Amino acid sequence: MPGEELPRMASRPQNRIAAAYYRGGTSRAIIFNQKDLPTDKAAWGPIFLGSIGSPDPVHGRQLDGMGGGISSLSKACVIGPPTVPDADVDYTFAALGVFDSSVDYSSNCGNMSAAVGPFAVDSGLVPVPPEMVFKVVRGALLTPGDDAETMFTVRIHNTNTGKLINATFPIVPGDADAPSGVEAASHGTFTIDGVPGSAAPVKLDFVRPAGSRTGKLLPTGHLVDQVETPFGLVRATLIDVGNPCCFVSAADLGVEDPTMSAAAIDADENLLSRLEAVRRRSAVMMGLAKSIDDVAGSVPKIGFVSRPTFDAKGAAVVVRAMSVGQPHKAVPVTVALALAAAAKLDGSVVADCVVGSQPSVDGSGSIDVHHASGSLTVGSKFDADGNLEHATEATVAEALRVTTMNNKAVEHDTMHPDNKESCKISHCSVRIINEDYKAARDWILRACLARQGLLEGEAPPNVMASCDRIPASLNLRQLKEIQTDILEQFNLEKSAVQSVVKDIRRVLLAYQSLIRDRDQPAGLNQRTDVVMELAFNLAFLAWILIFIVNY
After folding, report:
1. What is the pTM of this model?
2. How far, in Å, CA of 121 to CA of 101, rounded?
């Protein structure tokens, strides 16, 4: 109502915590650098829940945060320095409840694993060696538009499972904020079903992924177990690859259309209750919980499998999976990896549904899996003793670059960690890297390379004669930043860089002088001279008066 006084809200001090927003495969998550979070892990939960918009018990839309109302969009990741040998970073995953305040660390997310490597490079947690940076930037300058890519691998230690993951992806020249001078590529031609458009690929190699939680490939020691449920016995293969998983036959669940959509599954309450009953009893059989009431929401994963039909033409097996109580709109990567391993175990529920040439146990052949949004290719490789060595999958990851890395902030009330209202996204400020700045940096670097004789067949540029290549918006401070950046990142002679920058500085000063003269109104200089002369005369007269009064 007009004139009505608004209620006053009590103010509380808040701290801003840097965060990034990435997509990995068919999932999205807020990613935090561990150094920006409290040292007490117990204090992380309120930050995660507030930033994602949970709990949302009424609407389940997470409109008060950055979540999307489904489990695959309600996630948080923490990346920090490695705590084990043979790893570049530690990666901790948290599955966040949509309707409740659950923060579950009991499993890993394979999709978001694809974003860890790019984040580590983009944030500077994993520096790219100077020789590789030089190769990437020099290649981009010499052959612009060339499709040749430089691949970089980040070794990831997933703290949830204790397993190692190698993420390999292309790197490209970065902007002025890129810590190493390069960044993970976002653009590319690789596509995955369930995500529109294309992007750069990320290959994930899960190293010795068996026994992520139970210590065994087959936690019960059986290829097939009989799971007791209120609606009778159900045959299931219980396997632990990437995450503990349970696979059952669609026919045993009474599913008439095994290629049904996620929405159709979500609308079938009878099917949902059956899947959850099998999942909870399987968890107890796998040693993940003492009773069905103690089972975590995120593990074990469960999926029902079937032989391909006309709708799944070209796939070797069909799967529909659940994730934290919700039908997954594609398939969790760890479920796909577990399914690829189970497909090689003759007699398993999965292997019985595979059509076509079944992959050999000792080979590294891949298998096409049909899921709710299309298909996915995954592979697994066992050694001669039957131990699972690798499980692989290719997906995509990209930063949702609404803002740059350190400009995304989350407010966290450290005095009231249990108050979810105090943990909100405070702002999304945008720092735009001027295209002129990037063009200037690239041209100056090329000029430095040429002046040092590192560009074959190209003479050192005459900077004074090429001033049209220097953006007018470039200022002296930016020029100094570019010089420092080039000297720090590239093994170039300091004198060559300084010589080029000195010439450009002369051009900038001359150009700015011309601009000032051009923009001044006619007669301004003359009027300025008259004013200055009058001011001088008045000051001189005042000095004479002071002298007379005092003496």
Report:
1. 0.70
2. 31
Which helix (H) or strand (E) is 20 found in, with range?
strand 20-24
pLDDT at site 207? 92
Q: Are 277 and 228 spatial neighbours (Cβ–Cβ below 8 Å)? A: no
Which DSSP helix (H) or strand (E) runs through 487? Answer: helix 476-489
For 235, the token pair is: 């045959």
Q: Which helix (DSSP H) or strand (DSSP E) does residue 498 occupy?
A: helix 494-519
Distance (Å, whole) CA 121 – CA 88: 11
Separation of alpha carbons 467 and 471, rounded Å? 8
Three-state SS for 151-207 is: EEEEEEEECCCCEEEEEEEEEEECCCCCCCCEEECCCCCECCCCCCCCECEEEEEEE
The distance between the two most distant Cα atoms of the chain, rounded to a whole number of Å, is 117
Residue 414 has a pLDDT of 31
Identify the segments of the chain with pLDDT beneath 50: 360-362, 401-433, 463-468, 515, 518, 524
Confidence (pLDDT) at 405: 30
pLDDT at site 530:
57
- Give the Å distances, CA to CA, from 269 to 229, 276, 442: 16, 11, 59
| CA-atom Rg of the chain in angstroms | 30
Structure tokens at 121: 């490079």
Torsion of CA 285, 380, 106, 276, to 10 degrees: -50
Place of tokens 């990896």: 337
The residues near 200 (Cβ < 8 Å, ≥ 6 apart) are 169, 170, 184, 185, 186, 187, 188, 190, 396, 398
Residue 329 in contact with residue 194, Cβ under 8 Å? yes
The 3-state secondary structure of 507-530 reads: HHHHHHHHHHHHHCCCCHHHHHHH
Among residues 380, 395, 392, 401, which one has the least CA distance to residue 114?
395
Q: Give the whole-angstrom CA distance, residue 278 versus residue 286.
A: 12
